[in-house]
Amino acid sequence: MTAAARPLVTVVVPAYNAEKTLLETLRSISAQSYDQLEILVVDDGSRDGTFELARDYSLSDTRVRVLRQENGGVARARNHGVREARGLYIAPVDADDMWHPSKIERQLEAVLKFPGGNGVAYNWYASIDENGIIFGHSRSVMHQGNIFEPLLRENFIGNGSTPLMPRAEILRCGGYDPGLRDSGAEGCEDLKLYLALAEILPFALIPDFLTGYRFTRGNMSSNAHRMLKSYALVMAPIADRYPHLARDIEASQFNTACWYFKKAFHDDDYAQLKKLAPMMARKYPSRLIVHGLRQSWRQVKRQGIRIAKRVLGKPPAQPRIRFTAAVPQAGTAFSDRFASLPARETTGPDLFTGGLK
């Protein structure tokens, strides 16, 4: 990338009582191969040592600036960072997630291929636990360009720590919606913004697992009932604007509910299951019957194919390889994916050489 095409990217880190994970997150930001960064940590009224930790870290990386506000939720914290940003692009990352060192550089290269650099870039993610150990990963979807309808059917971006977005367009769309939290439905602020951007901008895919997305009990994404309420509030006005997509939206809501039910079942989260089971039975009785029959048929079909191949002596089919990225291996640390890369200096560049507005 030439010096003339090196715009400043503002990383926005909303942080609430995040002292246990914030340091790991900040180190993954500082280690980015693209160094024209402004790093804004927005302390959302934390009651632990989050502010002090971020302030101390700013002494070792001069690109870090620490902001404070009264507790108002993740949407208000992100919006605060966007308003204060000097960069042309915004890269949000939650204070418990991690990035691969090449994330921003590869995303920016993709975005700058759009006319005027006006687009959004996203990548796949690895699911990590409290200790940064991988236990799963996102589907390797290949959606690019106009992704509005595919994103409406499935939130394949999946979290708030993945995209690179033009600041001007975020502001044009109104930023993240704090009204969801005020309605007791915090959780899908990021998806709402992505859908608004997808209506007006092209999206580029970086086909690699560059985000470490942390799942822990008690974090926002683990509260299934609230997330589903948030999802419904986000989708309702879209269904009104696009009535021809109403059936797709209903199917998406059902599939999202099934995903949370399976996750709660896998995690032995009985409190979530007690809330989800009656809600799904009440709201989706016919869909549950059809879903159960389809799942049973698929299982019988797969078993039948395996038996037929054994009888006929055919070797099992090899999985198709659609991309060259290394698939995250369960039981390994996300940091191991880039442990062999050289460490970067964290003194930081002059912010005023990065293409400010």
TrEMBL record:
Gene3D superfamilies: Spore Coat Polysaccharide Biosynthesis Protein SpsA, Chain A. The keyword Transferase applies. Residues 10-143 form the Glycosyltransferase 2-like domain. It comes from the Bacteria. InterPro entries: Glyco_trans_2-like, Glycosyltransf_2, Nucleotide-diphossugar_trans. Keywords: Transferase. It holds the Pfam family Glycos_transf_2. GO terms for molecular function: transferase activity. This is Glycosyltransferase family 2 protein. It comes from Rhizobium pisi. The lineage of its organism: Bacteria, Pseudomonadati, Pseudomonadota, Alphaproteobacteria, Hyphomicrobiales.
